[in-house]
Each structure stands twice: as structure tokens, then as C-alpha cells.
Amino acid sequence: MRISDNQCLYRALRATKKIVCLFIFDTSILSKLQPGPERRVSFIYDAVERLKREFRAMGSELLVYHGNPAVIWQRIVAEYAIDTVFYDVDYEKYSVQRDAEIELLFDSAGIRTGVVHDHVIFHPETVNKDDGSPYSVFTPYSRKWMQRFVERPPSEFDSETGLAGSLLPLQAMPMPSFESLGFEYCEYATAESAIRLEIFDNYHQLRDRPDIDGTSRLSAALRFGIISPRKLVMLASQRSPAFLNELIWRDFYQMILFHFPHVEQGPFKPAYASIEWINNEFHFERWCRGETGYPLVDAAMHQLNETGWMHNRCRMITASFLCKHLLTDWRWGEAYFASKLTDFETASNNGGWQWAAGSGCDAVPYFRIFNPELQRKKFDPIGNYVKQWNVKTHTTPLVEHEFARRRCLETYKKALYGPQ
Length: 420
Fold this sequence. Notes:
By secondary structure, this protein is mainly alpha-helical. The chain folds into 3 domains: 1-118, 3-Layer(aba) Sandwich (Rossmann fold), CATH 3.40.50.620; 119-156 and 196-259, Serine Threonine Protein Phosphatase 5, Tetratricopeptide repeat; 262-413, DNA Cyclobutane Dipyrimidine Photolyase, subunit A, domain 3 (Orthogonal Bundle). It is 50% helix and 7% strand. The chain has a two-stranded parallel sheet. Strand 4 (84-88), helix 5 (93-108) and strand 5 form a beta-alpha-beta unit. Helix 6 crosses helix 11 and helix 11 crosses helix 16. The longest helix has 19 residues, at 39-57. The mean pLDDT is 94.
């Protein structure tokens, strides 16, 4: 969702004399969301409106439709004399199936396609083991990623020079109304797309402190392509190895989803499918509302529910608590985060939850169980984060930590090694 450093636009500029740009609000995706206030759709809608203004300033228009992409493309193919369609790849199961279906339409119409992998720094098949197989452990993957980065550092694509003269002149086309999408507009707190350079310089010291503004808050802008991952990677490589490492994790989880699509439905490690979750619905609802009795967990859930964003350290703590203290299936928490996070992305959300549950690739060991109180004392030492989110610190905990820890260890051991 940007004009600068856009590989699709860059390639189109060099392949043709006239370009038309298109965005579709996909009903198959939107229909899975709950009606009512929707932060993520609001965020996307605003981003699309900004793009429309940019295209209109260049004497053209961004075409925006709402519906089934296959049906809409049939109409577009009939209306325009299209030579080539350039698009960016999404590795989620539905998106892969959708794109394959639309590719058949292009083939039958004699339309060529230019496919790019602009959401990641390196194509998932280009950072593999020496034998060509994909990695499942982060550290060796990151070494190979860095080796490739040093050998061929990514460069930004000049997708703006000459763009105005290459866009097909079009009359203004109204946006589908937000109401027609089936939701209520909702304010969001993750609109930042400006890069604050001081964040890079202090990131390694402050990134785990939810009580301090020490993270970039760029996750939603990065997820939806408002900001270029290449730009961030190059800045991080010069100023913050810790920030760069987080961006490599992002590529890693995209690579896992690409090579191991089964993670969308179940555990990466088959043995973890045998865990006997308790799945207490009352406990789950209390966790969702931020009423567990553990102040840091509850503050984090309040932040998520009220803003659509949660600090990364807190994402790990709340996920660990749900899976290991409450023995609730990680997929319940994954789905809840998916419904609330403005920056939701299947690969990272799934990877993070499976990491916390121990079921994912290169996950935290099953016997590592965060103590929520020790985490609070370490990462919110003065209590500012808890105070900010108005947590009732006197609430009786849902479960006692040592009891929950023993129960978790017994449950996991039984699933992984059988009755002892």
C-alpha cells in the first residue's frame, strides 16, 4: 500500500507504457470478521483512501472494488485490454488458492503475470540449507539470511520516477462506503508510519519494557506494506542489530508458512497434537477480558482490547499464560489475537503462539513457563504499565502459579513421552 519502493510498480513501469492500479476489498476475507467496530479494516480503508489521493494528484485513479476477486477480475478483463498483471504474493492458504484460480483466468485471456515477493526481503526458497531443504530452527536460518544479505544487500526500487506519465488517465471513481463493507469505523492506535531513528539506537535496551515507549510501533504499517521492509532492514543493519534480528524473525515465519502450510491448522510438531487441553471457557473469557488476577497479563489484554496493539514482550507473557497456566489450546488465543490486532498477520501470529505453546518450530521448551509476577517485576518495575491500563491488582488470581506450573509439566510430559 505504497507508491515508493514498490516492486510491482517498478516492473510495470519498465514493461508497459500505461498502468492501471487496483485494490479489492475481498469479501471472502471480510466475511470471516465479526460485524461491528473493526480497527484493522479501518486502518486498511484509510490507507487505500490515502493512495487514491496520491493517484488523483497524478491525474489518474486507484480503482477500488468490493467483492469476490475472481468475479471482479472477470469484469476487469472484459473492460480493459490488459497485457500483464503484476501482483505481490501472499503465502496464506486462502490467498494461494485464490491467486491460482485467478491465474487460470489470466491464462485463458492470454494475459501474462509478473509475480513479486515484496512482503519479505528474500524469497522463502532462497534462504535454505545447503541441501536445498528449508530451515526449521531460527539461528542457522538467520546466519544464512545474513550471509545472503551481506553478499546481495537489497536495494530500493525506484517506482516513482516517471510514474505520473505512465498512469492511464482515469476519471475519479468513488470508494465503496465503509458501511457497505459491513463494519463500523473504529479508531486505531497503530497508525505510525514515520521512522523514529532514536528507536533504533535504544532498541536493544528498551524493547522488552512495555512501560517505556521503546519500540517502533511500525508493525501495522509494515504488515500492510505502507512502509518498505527493505528501507527498515537497511536502517536496522546500520543502527540496530537487535531490530534487524526481529525483521529476520519476520522473514523466518513467512518462510515457515510457505514451506509448512499445515501450521495454519495445527502444531508444527506433531507430538503436540496430543496435549490434553482443559479449555475452560470461563477461564478463557476472563483471560480475554484481562481479569486473570495477574496484573501484567491483565494490563496487556486491556491494551489489546482498547487499542488493537500489544507490546511484544506482553504478547509472549499472555500467550504463555493462556497455554501453560490455563492449559487452553493455543489456537483459541491465536484466533482471539487475530480478531483484535491491527497488525495481525497469519505467519507471525501463528509463529508467536506456537512458540509460546512449545509446538512450533524452534519454540520455547515446554518446561519454560513464564512466572507472570517475576515478569512484571522485571519489565514493569515501577508499575507504570499496569497503572496505565487501570488494572485491578486486588483481583484473585485464576490459578496459583506453582500449581499451574506442575500441572502444565505433567500434561506436556504425558503428551510427549506417555504416562510416567
